[in-house]
Description:
4-stranded antiparallel beta sheet; single chain; alpha/beta
Amino acid sequence: MKLEIRDLRASIEDKQILNGIDLTLSTGEIHALMGPNGSGKSTLSNVIMGHPSYTVTGGEILLDGKNVLEMATDERARLGLFMAFQYPVEIPGITVGRFLKRAVEIRFDGEAVSSRGFLKGLRADMEFLEIDQQFINRYLNEGFSGGEKKRMEILQMLMLKPSFAVLDETDSGLDIDALKIVARGVNRLRDDSFGALVITHYQRILQHVKPDFVHVMYQGRVVTSGGGELAQTLESQGYDWVREQFGTQEEGEHPGGKSGEATAGPLRLESE
Ligand code: ADP
Ligand code: MG
């Protein structure tokens, strides 16, 4: 399958954030998307999934030639688009088990899934991601640690078997063991029927999930692309050269320029 993003433009609250994104993903490929805070990476993910707060002001997104922008979010998900949230929300009242069973049923055409078969698959995937089985009966993300929430996103991804997954900074705030587990999940799906856009600040996860392509986003555009070596350049040199070479607006004058966020410095490893 192919996911084509062409000259995509989007705004939120009348602030133009995406200024013409071109990006084509094919199944079988892992793409990394990097770039300073405030570049519009999360905005791009949200627009791919159809978040209602964003207005698409131009361009298109095609999934195997079908116009994704006309589809409701659940339709996109049923067709095989998936997003792991940067900030997963807590949903009290819905257990992990029930949530996943319903989601799997809907993803795979409303087919009733036998409870036994479902549970067996769920248990196996949880074991694979080193998630305690007791989480099946807990409310989704309620009281979960940051790392547990991120692992829960990957569990959903494994169960829903998307054609394209967008992982929005799933690695942020994870210690090295949790990071390896997240990578293990992505690598397990890695084959000709799966593609991913791995959004990250750090080269670290890319040591475990080797990207075929690396793109750098800045001021709402993909400003440069390359292979895995580009991530290493960013790791060692930070984003200053990106700003100098590709910046068209003054800092603080970004589309949507909340300068505090937009000017966050070069790559830093956060404390764990
Ligand atoms: P990134 O994920 O690359 O850090 P974002 O897509 O989160 O970037 O943000 C891009 C810009 O859009 C930022 O300047 C941010 O402040 C602005 N923005 C994002 N969401 C909103 C929102 N809900 N309301 C106002 N501004 C927003
Ligand atoms: Mg973001």
